[in-house]
Design goal:
The structure holds two protein chains of two kinds.
Chain A: E1 2-6, H1 14-24, E2 29-33, H2 41-44, E3 48-62, H3 72-76, E4 82-84, E5 90-92, H4 102-106, E6 112-127, E7 131-138, H5 145-154, E8 163-167, H6 174-180, E9 185-190, H7 194-209, E10 214-221, H8 227-234, E11 239-244, H9 247-254, H10 259-262, H11 266-280
Parallel strand pairs in A: 1-8, 1-9, 2-7, 2-8, 9-10, 10-11
Antiparallel strand pairs in A: 3-6, 4-5, 6-7
Chain B: E1 7-12, H1 20-28, E2 34-38, E3 53-68, H2 78-82, E4 88-91, E5 94-97, H3 107-111, E6 117-131, E7 137-142, H4 149-167, E8 171-175, H5 182-188, E9 193-198, H6 202-217, E10 222-226, H7 233-245, E11 249-253, H8 259-266, H9 270-273, H10 278-299
Parallel strand pairs in B: 1-8, 1-9, 2-7, 2-8, 9-10, 10-11
Antiparallel strand pairs in B: 3-6, 4-5, 6-7
Helix pairs in contact in B: 4-5, 6-7
Classes of the chains: A alpha/beta, B alpha/beta.
The complex binds iron/sulfur cluster (SF4) (2 copies).
One iron/sulfur cluster (SF4) binds next to helix 4 of chain A.
């Protein structure tokens, strides 16, 4: 089963939850860190890196001896990644390039060659004896986060296991879509604050558009009846689990510890949750 | 004509949840004559703390989306082989564009020998202008899952800049997006200064380093503000070291405080909610420090 962990707002404890969910179900799951702009899981799960690969995309390279400065590629590019710069010819802003190939098709002189360009990387870490963590990392100065995410999801594990847990990026843009799409279930982690709720509603809008089943985990609660549970009740959304606010969790986190280190009783809840979710599908 | 060139100060954080938006809202009270902008377009929250009024809303069409006319399509399959985004679905020999995956590159439109592919502007969201007691706010809302978040960020910055020039406002205070990808790149390129709000935790430090690298890549000088500074002494020192290593100026730190959440519940900034609190005083000192830095730099 493919389970994506997401949250509209950043900093709600999404990654912390994903790690705990994985650790509680370690023998039957693997974890994918698809928050490729700021992957954090590896800071909390120590292990041995066993595999590293590059993620590349085709990007244009211009042969100045063939280019006549006609500007057809500049017009073809829908992402403003090319510009005519007088005598310097055509210049490329790789951070804007979507690797669509349009410029190479448009060039009448055959002056544009597409070359493999590294935009990120993927690494596989063995946590404990055999459970796998796959981490995607976007290179600085590139905007191709969705491409790196797709590569992480396609990456073959060393050993197949029953469940795949995907830590998705915050927000609701194309990276979020790349990360949650084709999941069997999405767990949205929120906190009972106005920001948390506002961004939860946006994430739900995105997930409904993708027609994926989902439920909510409310983190840092001071009471079981709160802004988030009221919202879920009103909108008929299942609340999967609530996690209490505690200074201990924050401190453990700041030292690199996990949620299970701070609240060991959660382990059984998280095992039950996975059982319940795999029963749903 | 220095007064005609407003300076953009972009507040970013790399990691979410460090208090970036709450701090931006608080700083909004101190900056003299400025325009506010929320460039965290896929989770814009700044307006929730600013008591907005008189909101004008406009549709935002950032890019395009392709659509295949089934009557003209003869199922040659060329579009599908050219599309790099897996956006062309084939079902029983019928070709159709899957809107959510289409990035609007136009490759299929230009390539189709039957001219069967139409090219429509895509509605990506909305942009808004609101009044607040701290000045005009430009904000936006990306349709969840929509493309062109970077273009929308650029658009909001552009609108804020026009208004700043019109009002002769020297500063634009921008709440930036998290991460280091598309929208962040659009928010930081060409900005005057970045203010990075971080926290002393392993992820806070890791993400700060990534945004510092991004700032170096785009050559934008940065200031650093450490929030929740008292939760881990060790990481506080590491953060200061990291700032120094990248030549970013450390402009202050704030203690962990639940008042931020309480202010959020009241729908105002921490300064409006708790003007006499210790943390409000500290924020004031930081804001003055920041403004002094900005003015000193202006003179040289
Ligand atoms: S590959 Fe596409 S996005 Fe990249 S420069 Fe060429 S036309 Fe522009
Ligand atoms: S416009 Fe580009 S992304 Fe959209 S369907 Fe055509 S080739 Fe694919």
């Amino acid at each position: 089963m493919n389970i994506a962990i997401a949250s509209g707002k950043g900093g709600t404890g999404k990654t912390t939850f994903a790690i705990a969910f994985f650790l509680a179900n370690q023998e039957r799951s693997r974890l994918l860190d698809c928050d490729v702009e700021e992957p954090n899981v590896h800071l909390f799960l120590k292990g041995k890196v066993v595999k590293e690969e590059k993620v590349t995309l085709l990007m244009p390279e211009i042969d100045n001896s063939l280019c006549t400065n006609c500007g057809k590629c500049v017009t073809a590019c829908q992402f403003n990644a090319l510009a005519l710069a007088g005598k310097a010819g055509v210049i490329i802003f790789t951070e804007l390039c979507h690797s669509c190939g349009g410029c190479a098709l448009a060039c009448p002189e055959g002056a544009i060659k597409e070359i493999d360009t590294e935009v990120g990387s993927i690494s596989t870490t063995l946590v404990g004896d055999s459970s796998e963590l796959t981490t995607g990392l976007l290179n600085i100065g590139h905007s191709a986060a969705p491409a790196v995410i797709i590569a992480v999801k396609k990456n073959k594990p060393i050993k197949e296991v029953a469940h795949r847990i995907v830590d998705s990026p915050a927000g609701t843009s194309c990276s979020f879509v790349a990360s949650v799409s084709k999941s069997d279930y999405v767990i949205l982690v929120t906190e009972p604050t106005p920001f948390g709720l506002h961004d939860l509603a946006l994430a739900i809008e995105g997930i409904r558009e993708l027609k994926l089943p989902f439920g909510v985990v409310v983190n840092r609660i001071s009471s079981p009846d709160n802004l988030a549970t009221a919202f879920c009740k009103k909108n008929d959304i299942p609340v999967l689990l609530q996690i209490e606010e505690s200074r201990l969790v924050a401190e453990t986190y700041s030292r690199g510890g996990t949620l299970l280190d701070a609240l060991p009783h959660l382990k059984q809840d998280l095992r039950d949750l996975l059982d319940r979710l795999s029963g749903v599908i | 004509m220095a007064h005609n060139d407003p300076k953009e100060i972009v507040v970013i954080s790399g990691k979410g949840g460090t208090g970036k938006t709450s701090i931006t809202a608080a700083l909004a009270s101190f900056f003299p004559n400025k325009i506010l902008a929320d460039c965290d377009v896929d989770a814009a929250d700044l307006h929730l703390l600013l008591n907005i009024s008189a909101t004008e809303k406009h549709d935002y069409y950032g890019g395009h989306v392709a659509e295949i006319d089934p009557d003209k399509c003869n199922s040659c399959g060329l579009c599908e082989s050219l599309c790099r985004f897996d956006a062309i679905d084939v079902k029983e020999g019928k070709y159709a564009v899957q809107e959510m995956s289409c990035e609007g590159c136009k490759v299929c439109v230009d390539a189709c020998p039957e001219k069967a592919i139409a090219w429509h502007p895509a509605l990506n969201g909305a942009w808004m202008k609101s009044e607040t007691k701290h000045g005009p706010l430009f904000h936006a809302r990306l349709i969840p899952g929509s493309e062109n978040s970077g273009k929308l960020v650029t658009f909001v910055r552009e609108k804020a800049r026009e208004k700043a020039i019109e009002n002769k406002a020297p500063y634009i205070l921008i709440d930036g997006p998290p991460g280091i990808g598309c929208p962040v790149i659009a928010a930081v390129t060409g900005a005057h200064r970045l203010l990075m709000v971080t926290e002393p935790t392993p992820s806070g430090l890791h993400d700060l380093e990534r945004v510092l690298q991004l700032a170096a890549y785009f050559k934008v000088p940065s200031y650093i503000l450490l929030n929740k500074a008292d939760i881990n002494k060790d990481y506080k020192e590491k953060t200061e070291k990291c700032a120094a290593q990248y030549g970013a100026k450390f402009i202050g730190s704030l203690p962990y405080s639940t008042l931020f959440t309480e202010a959020q519940l009241k729908g105002v900034s921490i300064l409006d909610a708790f003007p006499d609190s210790e943390i409000a005083k500290e924020l004031k000192a930081i804001a003055e420090n920041l403004i002094t830095h900005l003015q000193e730099e202006k003179q040289c």
